[in-house]
Amino acid sequence: MKQTLDIGLVYSRSGSYRRLSDAGRAGVLQAVARVNADPAAAWTIRVHEADPGGHQDHYAPAMLGLHRQTGSRHFFGAITSSGRKEMIPALERCGASLWYGVPYEGFEAADCVAYMHSTVNQNVIPLLDWALPRLGRRVFLVGSNYIWGWEINRIARDLIADSGCEVVAERHLPLGDTDIAALVDEIARTRPEIVLNSLVGQTQYCFLRALRAAGLSCRVLSCNFTEAELPEVGKAAEGLISVGPYFAQEGDEFGNSLERAGYLSVMNLVRLLSLPGADAAMTLPELLALDPGDIDPVSHHVAQPIVIAELREGAFAPLLSLPVTAGDPYLARAPRAKSERPRLRIVK
Length: 348
Hints:
- This is Amino acid/amide ABC transporter substrate-binding protein, HAAT family.
- The chain is α/β, with parallel strands linked by helices.
- Helix content is 36%, strand content 22%.
- Helix 3 links the parallel strand 3 and strand 4.
């Protein structure tokens, strides 16, 4: 007889980044449908949902509400790093876990989180390692004004300096801000060869449309743009170069990497709960200790391929494919050579 597994979905179905939420949620529900239709599966999954509405301070209350009402101990969603960080203390208090399927900025390894998309050694580092020798030396950094934008641009500054290249400027816009005229004007004046775009949601869509309308020739790079957002920007994103574990090709099962990450999150949870000795009351570290699969049992980051691709005629064409790479959120496994830079000294 099958056991019932209650799970909680905490995706913002409204707000400025709802398309990202919709993509991750679609992958989760696809996996749930597959598990529930499988007569050999040990579990039947029951889904409960809450919508934080794109408000960062609503994620933890939404998760706690589902936990109290349904007993759910495994959650999917969050999207932004601010939402994830709001949830972590609440998850820890109730012994629950979050399956997080979005690219993020690294420098975190919470016991209660499974990181199922790319981290820094799987996104911004390989992207800039590929782009700087090929596309130009003058880089304009732009990001949403929260931890994702801050940290991606901080790491990018180091990579750009180590490569002997130049940061032309760095600008951050509030999440959801669509007043981007001054930013585009500054890019037109400073004429960078590359724009590293770490904007999120509606801000990014407005930015890409405005860049295209201005006719600027700089190349746009992104660590977080996927096919899920193409309906918002259409041809304005043509030529954008992105990095991720997966880009959809004709006939593929998933439409984008967020959908794929949501699907793999559910399938990994079911796999863990179906192992000999597994118990539904176990914490995420206890489950991973049984057989982690592709998830690092210490950092909880998934190993996955790295693909750099360019948007051409509405689809991503791979430019470089790297083998499956373990997530290294603290950049501890493969230290990069650092260039000599001026050091501060005390002036007496």
